[in-house]
Amino acid sequence: MSSNSPNLKDYSLASLRDRFSEEGIPAYRANQVMAWLYQRDVDDLDLMTDLSVELRAALAERYETRAVEVAQADQSSDGTRKLALTTHEGHRIEAVIIPEARRNTLCISTQVGCPLACDFCATGTMGLTRNLTTAEIVDQVCRAKGCLDEEDGVISNVVFMGMGEPLLNLAAVKEAIAIMTDPRGMALAPRRITVSTAGVVPRIPELIEIGPINLAVSLHATTNEVRDVLVPINRKFPLEVLLETLRKDPNVNKKRPVFFEYTLLEGMNDSLEDADRLPDLVRGIPCKINLIPANPHPGSRYRAPEQDVMDRFAARVHEHGMRVTLRRSRGADIAAACGQLANA
Ligand code: SAH
Questions:
Q1: Which of 17, 86, 95, 137 has a 20 to 30 Å separation from 131 between CA atoms?
Q2: Residue in 64, 94, 136, 261 annotated catalytic
Q3: 68-334: which CATH number, 1.10.1520.10, 2.60.40.10, 3.20.20.70, 3.30.2060.10?
Q4: Are 128 and 140 a contacting pair, CB within 8 Å?
Q5: What is the pLDDT of residues 83-98, one digit of tens each?
């Protein structure tokens, strides 16, 4: 077995059943394997005792079951934990566990690096090395589970907001979501999963038709002029194209609002004119707006506005009747906050 072997975590239950059938293994064996991998959190084939010894040996010969390993774990003063993970070839990615009152959210990566080069994002400075496989995406959840004690509780929510642009790796992301939401897999309700995009517009409908997962869109500006600089993919898919697509997609509705992320960058997008334009821009799109104070990272020329400026911005957006929250930044002391994930 080499690191080029297929990985059992690359397959949703349907795909694994098909694959097993083709290999002459009864399809129901796939259900047993899934239960071990994701419900009992066992990935050592030797321990899968309801499979015959011969089948265990045959699978171990052909398949990997682990795809990423924890290289380093850092804990922030606020409880946020950043996991530096390595792929089999030694590429580094990051995942972040964010404990909250009644839940633990895990933020996972979809690419090694990112090609979109957003001006204020640390990952954007790396360029793209490659897409992650389904197994590498799913295994981030398995490794995070392994870092939690009983008193920590379980991973209850997953956000695709780590390194990379999920919609540029959509096939692997869809297969990973199938594993996460399968009652015989990780059994997470789709509503506990959020996928964020910087605006790869043509792939948005395909993503949100897979089921009632949440869509987050990185907006960050109220004019094309500013968004062209902050989120360069805007030059290809400008604001009006992005917003029109969301406006007419039947999978965006009151029950499934879009979460617009708006990182506040001092002197760039934090004026009251921006706050007044924002509601007009998204009119007709059921949505919530998450304001995020800019997180610093080495090489970034941006910083967050003063607290009173952010409070006034939030209040103004709220006065227009929008649902808006100003997030606290978490994990900044260990460079685990939004836009700080990069190979150190
Ligand atoms: N590529 C996807 C997934 C990453 S989500 C996307 O862009 O949506 C990460 C979020 O953090 C995005 O909204 C991103 O714009 C935001 N972000 C990036 N750099 C940041 C920074 N320095 N401070 C605060 N938020 C940042």
A1: 17
A2: 94
A3: 3.20.20.70
A4: no
A5: 999 999 999 999 999 9
